[in-house]
Structure formats: structure tokens, C-alpha cells
Design goal:
By secondary structure, this protein is α/β, with parallel strands linked by helices. The chain has seven helices and nine strands, in the order βαβββαββαβαβααβα. The protein has helices at 16-26, 58-66, 86-94, 105-115, 129-139, 144-158, 173-189, and strands at residues 5-9, 32-34, 37-39, 53-55, 70-77, 80-85, 98-102, 119-125, 166-169.
Length: 190
């Protein structure tokens, strides 16, 4: 049976990756597999081509854009692209995997638009911008300027939340995990 699609988007610091990683690690019965995206950046550390990402040159990436091979893509910085290949998603679905997308808000909306009812879109939302500020400052990984940029982007991204099938407010991580699990289980059983 062809796999289904689960799209998870959120502003930075909302807990999206933590929730997705927990779901995949603790619930193998859901047969979830990450969508393997493409990037034009160089591999980091132990990253391998075809595992974490497909690594392409900026020229190869542009060629695939011109050939309409992407479900969604973004040029984050000059010549730094990220995107999801249609063919890769279909390959994973044909293998019976339920494909999970951990993508930015606009990418999530585009994937949902492309697949309609075959996909469920989830928006993980922080309880407030103030709480998001507290979390980002608590990470101690960003400069104050970077935190301000992330917060401004988060406020903008939160305006897209109503375009998602479900909104999970992450004010308590355990509650948000359980709510996400219930939504995914319901969707996969339909």
C-alpha cells in the first residue's frame, strides 16, 4: 500500500524537530521515514549523500528547478538551496513508507497543496512569542541580533498557521507529543 504524507512545520524554537524525532524513534509501528531533501551546501561531519540529504551543486539544483522536479525548494542564501524532489517522495511512498516532512512553513503549504488529502499538515506553535524568546535565549546558540531575526520570522510564520490541517500548541512538550501522536495515528488509520 502506498504511504501517506505527514508535513510538520513550525517557527524555529517551537519544538518541531524534537517532536518529530520522538515520534520516529518511539513509534516504529507508524512506519515513518524522513523525506530526504536536497541541498547545495557541502556535507557536514558524517553526513552521507542519500542519507541525510542529496548533495547537489548549485548548478545541478538550478537544472532540477528548471525541469520542475521539486515539490518545494528555497534559496536560503545566494547559491544555498534546499528542496524536496517529487521523484524521491514517490519512491519512498511506493516502498510503503509514511513520509515525514520537517519543512519551513511555505514549503509545508506547497507540499499540502500538491498532495491534498493524501497529506496531513501540522503546525507546531509556541504558546507565545515571549515564550519563544525565552527558549531561544535559553539555547544560548544565537547572538541577540540573530534571536531578534528569528522572532520576527516566527511572528510572520505564525500568520500561516490557519492554512494547516492542525495546530499543536507546544506549551508542554509531553502534551504536544501525545497530541501529535493521536493526530498522526488517526490520519494513518483513515
Amino acid at each position: 500500500m502506498k504511504g501517506k504524507l505527514i508535513i510538520v512545520s513550525a517557527p524555529s524554537g517551537s519544538g518541531k524537530s524534537t517532536i518529530v524525532q520522538w515520534l520516529m524513534r518511539e513509534h516504529p509501528e507508524l512506519n515513518l521515514a524522513f523525506s530526504i531533501s536536497c541541498t547545495s551546501r557541502a556535507p557536514r561531519g558524517t553526513e552521507q549523500n542519500g542519507v541525510e540529504y542529496f548533495f547537489l551543486s548549485p548548478e545541478e539544483f538550478r537544472e532540477k528547478i528548471n525541469n520542475n522536479e521539486f515539490l518545494e525548494y528555497e534559496e536560503v542564501y545566494a547559491d544555498r538551496f534546499y528542496g524536496t524532489l517529487k521523484q524521491q517522495v514517490e519512491r519512498q511512498r511506493e516502498a510503503g513508507q509514511n513520509v515525514v516532512f520537517d519543512v519551513d512553513v511555505k514549503g509545508g503549504i506547497n507540499i499540502k497543496r500538491h498532495y491534498g488529502s493524501e497529506a496531513m499538515s501540522l503546525f507546531i506553535q509556541p504558546p507565545s512569542v515571549e515564550e519563544l524568546r525565552r527558549r531561544l535565549e535559553g539555547r544560548a546558540t544565537d547572538t541577540p541580533e540573530a534571536i531578534e531575526q528569528r522572532l520576527a520570522k516566527a511572528e510572520y510564520e505564525m500568520t500561516f498557521a490557519p492554512q494547516f490541517d492542525h495546530i499543536v500548541v507546544n506549551d508542554d512538550l509531553e502534551t504536544a507529543k501525545q497530541q501529535t501522536l493521536r493526530l498522526v495515528e488517526t490520519f494513518l488509520s483513515e
